[in-house]
Each structure stands twice: as structure tokens, then as C-alpha cells.
Amino acid sequence: MDVSAPVILKHPLVIPHRILMGPGPSNSSPRVLHAVGQTVLGHMHPEVFQAMDEIKEGIRYVFQTNNELTLAVSGAGHAGMEAVLSNLLERGDKVLVAISGIWGNRAADMARRYGAVAKEILTETENNFSLAQLEHAIQKEKPKLLFIVQGDSSTGVYQPLEGLGDICHRYNCLLAVDTVASLGGVPFYADRWKIDAVYTGSQKVLGSPPGLSPISFSPRAQKVIFERKTPVAVFYWDMTILGQQWNCFNNVRPYHHTVCSNLIFGLREGLAIIAEEGLEHVIKRHQECAQRLYKGLGSLGLELLVEEEHKRLPTVTTIVVPKDVDWKEVVGYAMRTYSVEISGGLGPTVGKVFRIGLMGYNATPERVDLVLKVLKEALEYARSARTAKL
Ligand code: GLV
């Protein structure tokens, strides 16, 4: 052999147990992990097709839609973002991207890579957009598509969407929404709110491992995709073929790519757990846990980045890093001592906030109390570490 077998691979794989209280992924339940650990099946086997059909029903439920073109793209949330933009945009098309954190920036970057003209509307890190601001920007830019994030995990800001679909359609604009961090933590009604494209991640409230991105397109968006002048720039995201593999159009199931059977099993179970609990209850549970967290953080004297409660995303809470601590000491202590993940900021919030996620299997009062206890201790540790250095 020109390259010898790596010695490192001769050591056993060791995976620690961790409690993921950051912005995602969240821990999967034992039931989901059991499903993921089943034998690998072929992507064209009837049992996998059956699970895919069941997933479609589950996705329609969590998105509250009857859209025909509903499936799960292979890839994490970014895959959903790529799929929405690459299917709805052609070279030279204009997209308006509402940027309130890192995800809008990502979407604008992707859209430009597909040759679209991306215009941006910005808001402050701790604020969302009013409908009037969005309408004004749509009127001015006349985009083909508005892209907006319902819950930005980098800032912890919640964006209300009611009424936005009507505004977009009045100006002949499609509406695409990222719900990766928000879905299941706040209400979402794709059909009622007239949303044309939506995607989420499997690894947050849906409670399965990262690797699949549920996605759905309205009939209006579907028509735009099927009437494109040019093929979708990336074969892997092409909904006209993926939709067939997922049997959205009740015809054949041609081979498009090798869907991971085990991720399918995990997502099927994640959706089943939500269906059994009931979406209303799931949302209520997340909101109650967020309230408990806010109360506990208040008792610790901590300040939240998003001051107005109705603008806060219940699934991801952003906490201002107190001036007398080094955020890395806090995060490091929590992981080292308790195997609990508390995250630092991301994008515009790097170094400014801690992010605590309450999602899916981890959205319980016990987990809230645990993360509060760990954070309290970690802050004490970071303060004493700082004093020792002075
Ligand atoms: C990922 O979704 C993150 O917010 O860090």
C-alpha cells in the first residue's frame, strides 16, 4: 500500500454522553435512536418507501399544509435553504432577503451563487421586522421572492408571519420561510399564512439526528418550479425529480439519490412522537419551558438580548454575557464538568451572548432546571477564574 492504515483507526471509537442545550442539534429520544440503529435498508425497498410516505404526512402536519410537493431533502437545514433558493430562483431573478441574523446572510450568499440578484433589508440584532417595513421593501424592490427566517438561532429573535403571505402575493412575490430553529416551538401555518416555500431541520424540535431537511412548496411555487426556463442549477436539489422519488405526484419513483434509510427511520419516529403528543401541546411545552428559563435567568441576575418577550424565540434564548465573565470559561466549564452544552453566540452575537436551546426531547422542566444550575455554577467559576488572573 502507498498509504498505510491509520493507527488512530485501530483505537476504539468512544462517544461521550452529552446533554445538548445549545441551539441544536438537540438530543434524540431513545425511541428515535433505536430507529436510527436498525439495519440499513436499500433506498428503493418498500419499507423505506413506506416510511418516506409516512414522513410526508408528518411533515404536512408539522407545517400545517396540504401541499403536494412535500418531502425531506438529504442534508441538514442548509440543504433546505439551498433547495428553496435553487428551485425558485433563476439567473437574474431578484430575491429580497430579510436579514436579522446569520441565516439571512447565508441565504443572500447562496442566492447570489445561483446567479440571482439578492437585495437585503436589515434589522437590529435584537429586533424583528414589522409588516410595514417588509411591504415597503417589497414595493421598492419588486422581487420574485421574499426570504425570511421565522426564528433566528443566532439572535433568539422571533419573526411573526401572519399577513405577510397576502402582502407578498399582492406584489406578485413568493414567500419563503426558514423554520429550522422555530418549528414546533411557535405556531406555524403554511397554508393559512399563504407561505410558498418552507423548510426546517430534523435535528431541533423534531428530535432526530441532523441530515434531513423537511421542505414543502405551495401549488404556486410548484408551478414556478415546473415552468422554469432553465433546469435547477443543482441536480441534487431538483424538486421536479426529487418530488418523484418521494412519490409526491403519484407516479413512478425513479432513482434520484441514495436516501439514508436510517435517517428516514429516525425522522419517521421523531414525527410520530410529535403526532402522538399533538402539535399544540408540543408548542405549549416549549413555551412553558422558555418561561421557566426566563424566570430562572432573571433570578441569576442575567439579562436577555431580546428585551420584549413577544419578540423572543422560545426554542433558543440569547443571554447577554455579563461584563465580568469570559464566555468561553462558562461554556467550557459546563461541558467539562456536566457534559452540558451551552453555546456562545453566532454571527452577529459572537462573544456577546450565551445561547440556550430548549428543543424536542430536551424541552422539559427538568432540563431547564439542570441548565440553570449548570449556568449558575459556571458563572461562579468564570468569575473566580477571572479574579484569580487579576
Ligand atoms: C445552528 O443552527 C446554530 O444556531 O448554531
Task: Describe the fold and architecture.
There is one protein chain. This protein is α/β, with parallel strands linked by helices. The protein folds into two domains: 19-23 and 279-389, Alpha-Beta Complex (Aspartate Aminotransferase, domain 1), CATH 3.90.1150; 30-275, Type I PLP-dependent aspartate aminotransferase-like (Major domain) (Aspartate Aminotransferase, domain 2). The chain is 40% helix and 15% strand. It contains twelve helices and 14 strands. It has helices at 30-36, 46-63, 77-88, 102-113, 131-141, 164-170, 219-226, 239-245, 261-277, 279-299, 327-338, 365-389; strands at residues 19-20, 69-74, 94-99, 117-122, 145-149, 151-152, 157-158, 174-178, 197-199, 212-217, 316-320, 340-341, 343-344, 353-357. It has a seven-stranded mixed β-sheet, with helices on both faces. Strands 11-14-13 form a three-stranded antiparallel β-sheet, with helices on one face. Strand 13 and strand 14 (353-357) form a beta hairpin. The radius of gyration is 22 Å and the shape is globular. It starts with 18 loop residues before the first strand and ends with a helix. It binds glyoxylic acid. Glyoxylic acid (GLV) is lined by residues 23-24, 153-154, 346. Its EC number is 2.6.1.44. The modification N6-(pyridoxal phosphate)lysine is found at residue 204.
CATH architecture of the largest domain: 3-Layer(aba) Sandwich
Distance between the termini: 55 Å
Please trace the helix and strand order, writing H or E for each element.
Answer: EHHEHEHEHEEEHEEEHHHHEHEEEH
The profile of the biggest β sheet is:
7 strands, mixed
CATH homologous superfamily of the largest domain - what is it? Answer: Type I PLP-dependent aspartate aminotransferase-like (Major domain)
Instruction: Count all strands and give the number.
Output: 14
**CATH C-level name of the largest domain:** Alpha Beta
